[in-house]
Specification:
Length: 299
């Protein structure tokens, strides 16, 4: 497997003054315990609510205020968010897709960036209908409903449905921040549906914390390595059982074992160039975003 380029974000040191409260200790819930609805009440009950209306930046500021003064939120945060926002400004995607919307922080930040870059649609795919309702409410508050479309359901089913409906025919930029074992399988599904072509860019969150070795191996592999893996490995070479951390374990407690399809082979002939950009979680814990570009198709 070729080595990935590694670089640091433009802000090499974390500003502790903007840190979220710490994530809860092992064994304690750190999402899906009511805090997401509590956040909605916090934002809509904010003393500056009339100034917040219609401003993505001010809605994001209110979400950050909750995360810094009330409870931890598993948002992409300002530091890693800046990496992806810069990528949006460079790529200028007409259509961007995010897998995993949570409370809408990334949909607000990146949806606004897509609109500023001249883009037309930002699809936010979210598994949990309660989280999806929070996203829709905050998107409407921010005045981004013309760009951001929230889609409720499992990521794979939503991708297939949008494609079958003709609503999603190509992805210019995709942000992966959902169920960690599904990063690779969903990318392969998008390849299979020919949504990924030369020029498409991918940004994958949490590749250091908690980490995602199968995804990194796939996007950093050569075409020949991917072809060999496709020919030799059962279950398409994807480990869906372990090594993805507490978030995956908490999903299991809420919805049971998430079904990750491994039958889609993808397109091993797509040529990727990938690099890791080191950054920080909103709590200040080191993390990184893997930026991958499809640069060609091998014969």
């Amino acid at each position: 497997m070729p080595a990935s380029t590694v670089e640091s974000s433009e802000h090499a040191n974390f500003d502790e003054r903007k840190a979220y409260v710490a994530q809860e200790e092992e064994g304690e819930a750190f999402f899906d315990d009511g805090r997401e609805i509590e956040l909605l009440h916090f934002v809509y009950g904010h003393p500056s609510i009339e100034e917040i209306r219609g401003s993505p930046e001010k809605v994001l500021k209110a979400i950050d205020e909750y995360g810094r003064t009330k409870k931890y939120l598993m948002n992409v945060g300002d530091d890693k968010g800046r990496i992806v926002s810069n990528l949006i400004a460079e790529v200028k995607p007409h259509v961007m897709v995010e897998l995993g919307g949570y409370v809408g922080y990334s949909a607000l930040l990146f949806g606004d960036a897509v609109r500023k870059a001249g883009g037309k649609r930002y699809f936010s795919l979210e598994r949990n209908p309660e989280f999806g309702a929070v996203i829709m409410s905050l998107v409407e508050l921010a005045g981004l409903s013309d760009v951001v479309k929230v889609v409720i359901g499992s990521s794979a089913e939503s991708i297939r449905r949008l494609h079958a409906q003709g609503s999603l025919q190509h992805i210019d930029l995709m942000f992966l921040d959902h169920y960690k074992p599904a990063y690779t399988t969903d990318l392969k599904l998008c390849e299979h549906l020919k949504l990924i072509t030369p020029g498409t860019a991918l940004a994958a969150d949490n590749v250091i914390k908690p980490g995602n070795p199968p995804y990194l191996e796939y996007v950093r592999s050569t075409v020949e390595q991917k072809r060999q893996a496709q020919d030799s490995e059962k279950s398409n070479g994807i480990d869906t059982e372990s090594g993805f951390g507490r978030t995956t374990d908490m999903y299991k407690k809420r919805v049971g074992e998430e079904k990750v399809s491994t039958e889609t082979k993808g397109n091993p002939n797509l040529v990727y160039e990938s690099k890791l950009v080191n950054s920080f979680e909103p709590t200040g814990v080191p993390d990184g975003v893997e930026i991958t570009r499809c640069v060609g198709v091998a014969e």
